[in-house]
Amino acid sequence: MPETNSDTSAAEQSTIDMEAWVCPAPLRDAPNVLMGHGGGGAMSAELIEHLFLPAYGSAADAQMGDSAVLQVGAERLAFSTDSYVVKPLFFPGGSIGDLAVNGTVNDLAMAGAQPVALSTAFILEEGTPLTELARVAHAVGTAAVAAGVKLVTGDTKVVDSGHGDGVYINTAGIGLVDRRADIRPQRARPGDVVIVSGDIGVHGVAVMSCRDGLEFATTVASDSAPLHGLVAAMIDTGADIHTLRDPTRGGVGATLNEIARAAGVGISLDERSLPIPGEVRDACGLLGLDPLYVANEGKLIAFVAPEDAAAVLAAMHSHPFGGRATVIGGCVTEHPGMVVARTALGGTRVVDLPVGEQLPRIC
């Protein structure tokens, strides 16, 4: 039985039956939180399914997605929250500041919503230079202006020196869902075409490139960008877009697995069609990483009916953030809940949900 906190009251302990958890390894075998629990892979899913949801009880929405769609009067509101702990705070092409804005804006966009307002909460480590904090705050403001979203409320807390990494940020956002849109993972269905909006693996490699001891021959800049304009252009085609997701933690591989399991469909990828830049492929080869599991912050994956694919692709190609959009596979009736890739050699391999995370602290 996992150890209980000595501060937990006897009454609380009596209501927490940890032996009743139905949980595969590694959650049951790890009595403490591990880095992999925040990686967006299997460990994150187990933590939500076997700890948070049972603890929340009837208060929880079972879907617990990146964003929720709420009916408020005649309008549908998208609501999302995310926390950013990226290390280092500044990296090629971006910083924790613009990442915090764009990440939450994109979670709203994946529900077909135009962002309206964000909150910003800062957790600061004592001793952090104010000049550094000012750079982060400026990046937040600049990104919000670029995305056309207001920063309407916030909070600031300070922790003791040595108990943080300078700056952590939480952003929550609300947006108005387009009345023409019904976009959710459960709507993916056999026959759907799977489209990615551009090169993958860029953000994760950009963050890793400026960590101690790592040097690459070329500079890889983060792809962090707000995607609600791209999504609006896709919806304007009149296509019935079934599913949208931004493949952040866990990359394309984890995101496709989550959709396959939510919709009960199989997904077949063509590895030769995956848009992986040479510098990303080289860096992943050097580090022993699979680009499919490397995080992105300015890309989306779309599932659309085959008759709509050409129109959606054309709209994406006409937008600055979708110029390299390409079809990477489709939904199939075979192997429901699984993602399988056809290799360049003509074989197949299973693209499974990662257990932990390849690259810690990338968002």
Question: Would you give an account of this structure?
Answer:
By secondary structure, the chain is of the alpha+beta class. It folds into three domains: 10-59, no CATH class; 67-177, PurM-like, N-terminal domain (60s Ribosomal Protein L30, Chain: A, 2-Layer Sandwich), CATH 3.30.1330.10; 185-350, Phosphoribosyl-aminoimidazole Synthetase, Chain A, domain 2, CATH 3.90.650.10. It is built from nine helices and 14 strands. The protein has helices at 10-15, 42-56, 96-109, 130-147, 202-208, 228-235, 251-263, 278-287, 309-317, and strands spanning 67-72, 75-84, 90-91, 94-95, 113-125, 150-159, 167-177, 193-196, 241-245, 266-270, 301-304, 326-332, 339-342, 348-350. Strand 3 and strand 4 form a beta hairpin. Helix 3 (96-109) packs parallel to helix 4 and helix 6 packs across helix 9. The relative contact order is 0.16. Belongs to the HypE family. Its EC number is 4.2.1.-. Residues 189-331 form the PurM-like C-terminal domain.
SSE order: HHEEEEHEHEEEHHEHEHEHEEE
The description of the largest β-sheet is: 7 strands, mixed
Query: Percent of residues in beta strands?
Result: 15-25%
Mind telling me the CATH class of the largest domain?
Alpha Beta
Q: Please state the average pLDDT score.
A: 88
Q: For this structure, what is the CATH homologous superfamily of the largest domain?
A: PurM-like C-terminal domain
CATH topology of the largest domain: Phosphoribosyl-aminoimidazole Synthetase, Chain A, domain 2
Number of helices: 9
Rg from Cα: 21 Å
Q: What is the number of strand segments?
A: 14
Strand order of the largest sheet: 9-11-8-12-10-13-14
Share of residues in helices: 25-40%
Q: Assembly state here?
A: single chain
| Structure class | alpha+beta
Distance between the termini: 33 Å
Number of domains: 3
CATH architecture assignment of the largest domain: Alpha-Beta Complex
Given the C-alpha coordinates, what overall shape results?
A: globular
Low-confidence stretches: 1-14, 16-28
Family: Belongs to the HypE family.
Keywords: Lyase
Domain PurM-like C-terminal: 189-331
Pfam family, one: AIRS_C
